[in-house]
Amino acid sequence: MLQLLVTLAVIIILTVIAYPYYRQHQLQARLNQAKAALLINGQFLAVHYQKHLSYKQNKHNWPELPISKNQHFCFRIQGNPSFAREEHFTLKAVAIDTEAEPRIIKLNQDGRIFICQSSTSRCDEENHFFDGKGQPDKKCRIF
Length: 143
Prior knowledge:
Elements: H1 2-52, E1 73-78, E2 90-95, E3 104-108, E4 113-119, E5 129-130, E6 137-142
Parallel strand pairs: 1-5
Antiparallel strand pairs: 1-2, 2-3, 3-4, 4-6
Protein name: Type IV pilin protein
InterPro entries: PilE-like (IPR031982), Pilin-like (IPR045584)
């Protein structure tokens, strides 16, 4: 009986030690999936620009992205197309559950990828783009 209790205690201790590392690995894997989707969407926009000399579909709309969401993130272009320049874009990946993952990833037309520690952007916003008013993203650095 004592051996069973010792074995159980060791298993519990190992689980308590390993779980945070597992959770961190899981979040990093999700960020990498989001990064891959951003790159695919970025390639789509690059081809669109070559054909139309604009990242916009028209003055008031962005083109529909090939990947608009996955299991953990939604993907949209940041900013109202009516006020955006023809030769610029910022794609953004925002977690569907911002409590579990508050960080966001951004990709711009130059291929630079940034990770921000927090954002006011949410997947349930009504627009087909993320509002870029003010400074919605905080503590950003190159990813």
